[in-house]
Design goal:
By secondary structure, the protein is mostly helical. It has helices at residues 3-30, 37-46, 48-62, 70-84, 94-118, 123-141, 151-157, 166-184, 186-196, 198-203, 208-234, 244-254, 266-285, 291-308, 310-336; strands at residues 160-161, 164-165. α4 (70-84) runs parallel beside α6.
Length: 337
């Protein structure tokens, strides 16, 4: 692996870490409320749904696909939770109630995979259709926010040590383990190989179809788990869909995922999701409009795409200039002859 490729792999992690530290330092100097245990704990809890769904989205991107249905899936899980995880549900009864949400994620992932692998629909079209189905199902079950979520479930999901949620510690460990698996195991290599060149991967004997199916199933299951933490936040069966579909893609891309597939980082995705949540956390402290968050995210995505692609862009420019130089030399020799 060349030095340029090594730097390209580490660049997203370094950039996201630097931005988090810089923005956090600025906010702590300007606003005393930022470093309070309440605000930091709230920041880590509110970023949990985005982190989880973004880790799943990164898996879909690794095989060269998109899943825009995750936002509607998360919302549908919240709505279903208002029926299966009610205040009257016993602790033992919460097990099958929670299993229903995971089963919804599993079924959605298989449905998306069927559309993409069997019917050969583009992933963005297939998952957009699933988005509409799930959106309609949520509104059919709850046409307005109602149905309280079980308080024991909420307290269990939001349990913390000092201001750090236990779930956040677990998801950091998950992201680190996932990156080790992605770059140090045969199955992780297969996942990246399918995204880089599916035809070549198939010729090497890799089960590309199964890999793509598992990637989209994992994406949907992670979205359903993210639905638990979204339910813990809203604590009511709300059919209002958040912007998690686009934000999860943004977090994965900022974390180093390639839109063409084959490259990404789960740790980078986690850091990017935390940074995006940090922007949403800091703006109200400075009494700034939330619209600035959307503008900032858009600018960052475009800047990151250019920055992460800079080694390839430089190589292309060198090739182009080299071709022009050789052409001019040939023309000069022809004229002299």
């Amino acid at each position: 692996m060349t030095v340029a490729r090594r730097l390209q792999g580490w660049l997203p992690l370094v950039l996201m870490t630097t931005l988090i530290v810089a923005l956090g330092a600025y906010a702590s100097v300007k606003q005393d409320a930022f470093l309070t245990s309440y605000n930091l704990g709230n920041l880590l809890l509110t970023t949990m749904p985005l982190i989880l769904v973004s880790l799943g989205q990164a898996t879909a991107l690794l095989v060269g696909g998109f899943d825009v249905s995750v936002a509607a899936l998360m919302t549908f899980c919240v709505v279903v939770a208002s029926f299966t995880l009610t205040p009257e549900t016993s602790r033992l009864g919460m097990i099958p109630g929670a299993a229903v949400l995971v089963a919804i994620g599993l079924g959605t992932g298989l449905f998306n995979a069927l559309l993409i692998r069997i019917l050969r629909l583009p992933s963005i079209i297939a998952t957009l259709g699933t988005f509409s189905i799930l959106e309609g199902a949520s509104l059919l079950l709850r046409d307005h926010p109602e149905g309280t979520i079980n308080a024991d479930l909420v307290s269990g999901l939001t349990r913390s040590v000092s201001f750090v949620p236990l779930a956040f510690i677990a998801v950091v460990a998950l992201a680190v383990a996932a990156d080790i698996w992605l770059y140090r195991s045969r199955t992780g290599l297969a996942l990246r190989a399918v995204g880089l060149d599916e035809t070549s991967a198939r010729r090497l004997g890799m089960r590309t179809g199964r890999t793509v199916i598992l990637a989209f199933v994992a994406c949907s299951v992670m979205a359903s788990i993210a639905g638990f933490y979204l339910a813990a936040q809203v604590q009511i069966g709300s059919p209002i869909i958040g912007n998690y579909g686009l934000e999860s893609i943004a977090a994965a891309v900022l974390g180093g995922a390639s839109l063409g597939g084959g490259r990404g980082s789960y740790v980078g995705t986690l850091l990017a999701a935390l940074f995006l949540s940090l922007i949403d956390n800091v703006l109200p402290l400075f009494q700034q409009p939330t619209e600035y968050s959307e503008i900032t995210i858009g600018v960052l995505i475009l800047a990151a795409l250019v920055l992460y692609k800079s080694p390839e862009l430089v190589a292309r420019l060198r090739t182009s200039w080299g071709g022009v130089g050789r052409l001019r030399t040939g023309e000069g020799e022809a004229s002299a002859g």
